[in-house]
């Protein structure tokens, strides 16, 4: 259901509907993988009753990735031990406050790839999040369970975060609309960090009009006075059906990049994965250093491996990362002097099976998503359906969160996505 349809319910009906959808649309094993907490039905009905119906999101339920603090509730960030090293939050995060002011109703909190340090949606503690329509395939991570909530039709809005693609990839895998803001934005304040230089707030909807309403409520929507100009850059490493589908989807918004633009961006982006991995390794270790040794055995082994690689980094690698970062940011600066938006594929393939969640495929994903992460740029992800019935997505990279391009691009999409 869309935002307006949820808003037609009485508080009691809305609370009952949320619980009904959780119980009927998620198998018990997936309920454990997806939900860190679900508000009890009576308390949820009271929350719906308190929500201002005059606010832009009045009476709209949302689910929250469990790295945004909620006062009085333990926060695990996909781990088993975070409350043992950090006290339960005393105050709501900026995101929770903003959503409450906009009339949104917190229905529950969602699990994630542990500490948001992964892009496949796997979690050995609570279970891997499966695609609601294609069991055995992942929703993508790290905002894995938030995407599952919306893809399953349980709630119309779910909050995630995006450091290296953790909104963009799940949106692509699940056929959703996704939006990520910029690093250091007010709405990421207080969230448990992965790499503060790259961490951004973001969210999912299944409906274009709903996405526009959420952006309007949380960021502000600026209508376009003239048709924006942009172009599509096809990056290497795409599966053939993804390449064809993204080319076709991009044509509705703009042409392919001219040769000079293409060559300049491809050259600038060539070192993006190494630069991203190096910077994130340093920043993530700085976050976890105070307790990492003590809780070594309780980390997801894959997450620990990524954290631990900081010790193998050399001064030359860090210097290369700084140079690549400056090069990528300069390339984007040059690009936005001529264009209003850049389109990129959001995933190189459709939703992965567990067996395909490999380091090599992680690198293929980051080759598409790391450039905008390093550029510190907002991205709207548009769903793109594949002939197989699976999906990918189109990244629409803009210069700032209130870019008129966002409203214009959403207006070009069918309002409701097939569920």
Evaluate the radius of gyration.
Answer: 20 Å
Distance between the first and last residues' Cα: 10 Å
CATH class placement: Alpha Beta
Could you name the CATH topology? Amidase signature (AS) enzymes
The description of the largest β-sheet is: 10 strands, mixed
- The secondary structure category is alpha+beta
Q: What is the approximate shape?
A: globular
Low-confidence residue ranges? none
CATH architecture: Alpha-Beta Complex
Q: How many structural domains does the protein architecture include?
A: 1
Strand percentage lies at 5-15%
Total number of beta strands: 12
Give the helices and strands as they follow along the chain. Answer: HHHEHEHHEEEHEHEEHEHHHHHEHEEH
Number of helices: 16
CATH superfamily: Amidase signature (AS) domain
Name the strands of the widest sheet in spatial order.
Answer: 1-3-2-6-8-7-11-12-10-9
Helical amount? 40-55%
pLDDT averaged residue by residue? 96
């Amino acid at each position: 259901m869309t935002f307006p349809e949820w808003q037609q319910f009485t508080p009691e009906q809305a609370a009952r509907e949320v619980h009904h959808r959780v119980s009927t649309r998620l198998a018990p094993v997936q309920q454990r993988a997806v939900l860190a907490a679900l508000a009890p039905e009576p308390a949820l009905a009271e929350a719906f009753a308190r929500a201002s119906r005059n606010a832009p999101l009045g009476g709209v339920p949302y689910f929250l990735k469990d790295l945004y603090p909620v006062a009085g509730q333990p926060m695990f960030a996909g781990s088993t031990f975070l409350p043992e090293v950090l006290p339960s939050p005393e105050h709501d995060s900026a995101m929770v406050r903003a959503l409450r002011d906009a009339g949104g109703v917190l229905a529950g909190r969602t699990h994630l790839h542990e500490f948001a340090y992964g892009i496949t949606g796997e979690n050995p503690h609570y279970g891997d999040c499966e695609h609601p329509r294609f069991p055995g395939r992942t929703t993508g991570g790290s905002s894995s369970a938030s995407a599952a909530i919306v893809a399953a039709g349980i709630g119309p809005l779910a909050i995630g975060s995006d450091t290296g693609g953790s909104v963009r990839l799940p949106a692509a895998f699940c056929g959703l609309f996704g939006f990520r803001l910029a690093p250091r934005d007010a709405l990421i304040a207080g969230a448990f960090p992965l790499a503060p230089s790259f961490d951004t707030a973001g969210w999912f909807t299944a409906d274009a009009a709903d996405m526009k309403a959420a952006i309007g409520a949380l960021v502000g929507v600026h209508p376009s006075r003239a048709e924006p100009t942009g172009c599509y850059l096809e990056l290497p490493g795409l599966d053939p059906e993804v390449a064809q589908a993204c080319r076709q989807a991009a044509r509705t918004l703009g042409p392919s990049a001219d040769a000079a633009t293409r060559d300049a961006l491809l050259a600038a982006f060539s070192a993006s994965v190494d630069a991203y991995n190096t910077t994130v390794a340093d920043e993530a270790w700085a976050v976890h250093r105070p307790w990492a040794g003590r809780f070594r055995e309780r980390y997801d082994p894959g997450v620990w491996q990524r954290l631990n690689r900081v010790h193998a980094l050399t001064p030359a690698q860090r210097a290369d990362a700084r140079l690549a970062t400056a090069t990528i940011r300069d390339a984007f600066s040059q690009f936005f002097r001529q264009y209003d938006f850049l389109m990129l594929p959001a995933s190189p393939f459709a939703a992965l099976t567990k067996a395909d969640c490999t380091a090599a495929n992680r690198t293929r994903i980051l080759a598409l998503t790391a450039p905008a992460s390093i550029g510190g740029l907002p991205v709207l992800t548009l769903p793109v359906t594949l002939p197989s019935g699976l999906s990918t997505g189109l990244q629409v990279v803009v210069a700032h969160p209130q870019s008129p391009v966002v409203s214009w691009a959403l207006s070009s999409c069918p309002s409701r996505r097939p569920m």
